Amino acid sequence: MTQAELEAVEIELVLEALCRRSGYDFRSYARASVTRRLRQLMEQKGIDHASALIPKLLHEPVFLHELLAAFSVTVSAMFRDPDFWCSLRENVIPLLQTYPHVRAWVAGCACGEEAYSLAILFKEEGLLAKSTIYATDISDRNLAAAKAGIYPLRHVREYSQNYQKSGPQDTFSSYSHASHDHIIMNRDLKKRITFANHNLAADQVFAEMHLILCRNVMIYFNQDLKNQVLGLLSNSLIRGGFLCLGTKESLLFSILGPGGWNEIDSRNKIYRKRIRDNGDDEGAL
Ligand SMILES: C[S@@+](CC[C@H](N)C(=O)[O-])C[C@H]1O[C@@H](n2cnc3c(N)ncnc32)[C@H](O)[C@@H]1O
């Protein structure tokens, strides 16, 4: 057996142990990304062989949390990919405005940046008061940060620039207040967001959503898991509901295929679930 083959076996055993110990199943995550993260952690800890992670994750609760955190890539930003937010404002919001109540789900919300961006957009478009935004993530640590809605002041410049490019009606600073070296998001936004733990790989559908954002999450999954999650997202949407996958994903190569969906924005991967089975949605809202 080569060193690489040996490492592959060890990593499989680590993921199996992690799944049994914590219930979190990373066996269907893209292996290259999992390997990279485990190697980083091993280097930090001065561990030579991946199999040496197994007794630590089984017996040291603190290490188990570190390992789970290593798998949680939390990179995000308010109004990340401003072009996506412009498109949402232009192509999706006018239809959402026709509903008496709007249910939106931000799946894989990291530390809440995307959920607060959506709440700001909804507020500007007169939707916030009649909406419920669910924001979920696999990581309790991320969710605690998201609920707090506190972000380092050093990020504000990037957030404001993104916001300004998203077709806004105000200034970013009117949605938060500064406190020492942080900003705190306004309470009226927080009030409309329900943060909860939800594992896309293992948990159930969210019922009757009008809009789902799941951007930069499935890039870490292998194709089987992507297909499974896309099925779950599709089943969570009403007919005529919108699915936003972000620039890095596509429905075209998944199990769902392009049938059953209307492509609203090919670059930003915004799709609308067809209202009628025959695909003739002409005249339907
Ligand atoms: C790179 S962040 C993306 C954040 C945000 N959606 C964005 O585009 O800026 C990926 C998030 O997905 C979460 N995640 C990874 N696997 C998940 C799973 N199985 N279920 C739910 N969330 C998951 C991670 O914890 C992380 O917060």
Give a quick precis of the structure.
This protein has 285 residues and is of the alpha/beta class. 41% of the residues lie in helices and 18% in strands.
CATH architecture type of the largest domain: 3-Layer(aba) Sandwich
* Structural class assignment: alpha/beta
**Element order, helices and strands?**
HHHHHEHEHEHEEHEEHEEE
Biggest beta-sheet profile? 7 strands, mixed
State the shape.
Answer: globular
Rg over CA atoms: 20 Å
Number of strands: 10
pLDDT under 50 segments (min length 5)?
none
CATH superfamily assignment of the largest domain? Vaccinia Virus protein VP39
Question: How many angstroms does the end-to-end distance come to?
Answer: 60 Å
**Overall number of structural domains:** 2
Question: Top keywords for this entry?
Answer:
three-stranded antiparallel beta sheet; binds S-adenosylmethionine; single chain; 2 domains; Rossmann fold; 10 helices; seven-stranded mixed beta sheet; 285 residues; alpha/beta; 10 strands
Structure in words:
With 285 residues, the protein is α/β, with parallel strands linked by helices. It has 2 domains: 3-71, no CATH class; 82-273, Rossmann fold (3-Layer(aba) Sandwich). It has helices at residues 3-22, 31-45, 53-59, 61-71, 82-96, 113-124, 140-148, 156-164, 187-190, 223-236, and strands spanning 102-107, 131-137, 150-152, 176-179, 182-185, 193-197, 209-213, 237-244, 261-265, 270-273. Helix 1 (3-22) packs parallel to helix 3 and helix 3 crosses helix 4. S-adenosylmethionine (SAM) binds at residues 72-76, 80, 108, 110, 114, 137-139, 142, 199-201, 215-217.
